[in-house]
Amino acid sequence: MSIRHGLLALLERGPRYGSQLRTEFESRTGATWPLNVGQVYTTLARLERDGMVVQDGEDDAGHALYVITDSGRDELRSWFRTPVDRASPPRDELAIKLAMAVGAPGVDIREVIQSQRHHTVKAMQDYTRLKARALTVTPTDRDDVAWLLVLDQLIFQTEAEARWLDHCEQRLIRLSLVIPPEAGDATEDSLTDSPTDSLTNRDSGSGTHTGTGTDTDAVTDTDTGTSEDKGTRPVARAGGSRPGRTARR
Question: 52 in helix, strand or coil?
Fold first, then answer.
């Protein structure tokens, strides 16, 4: 996630101060990726250093206002035109966990997969409920539309992750038939069980795959900004609601 470019996009709409930028950023994304004031001002300082924003006076309350420069606008246009790089994907904790679980002593990899699938499907159900709640009223502003786009992405991601976990389990079962497990390997019993048992022991909520009308995968936050107080922010994650819009949903 690029906080840098997100702030530039908000500043293009007019002068803003730090906490105002944080509020508008979270409103636009439904607080899915919450910021704190420290992150915002650290990013603004770097943008100012790079000549992409400048301070331009204060508002009536004494807040320092920032405005975007021509260089900042050029950077923003370039960001919008350039595809997000997928050649060097960010580290994915789940993929790393499963890779390390293969053959790990005392680890039942099928149990790891099933536990994650249960969590992923529940998250997908929660995101789907949030979307249904958001659609009870017609979107009236750009923030409403932006929030729906973010929700769609979260649903697509979790659904794709659930399908990938199914694929991992099937692949491990097939490989167990041709690769003899090492003595004492914790996956020996779990992967030589009946494939039918493995694939039919699904989470009770997995039927919601068809309820979303979409395919999906998991959320990865690659924000490299500072993280102080991040956990204290209200976040519209699975099971929650969008801050400031509860009454409308």
Answer: coil
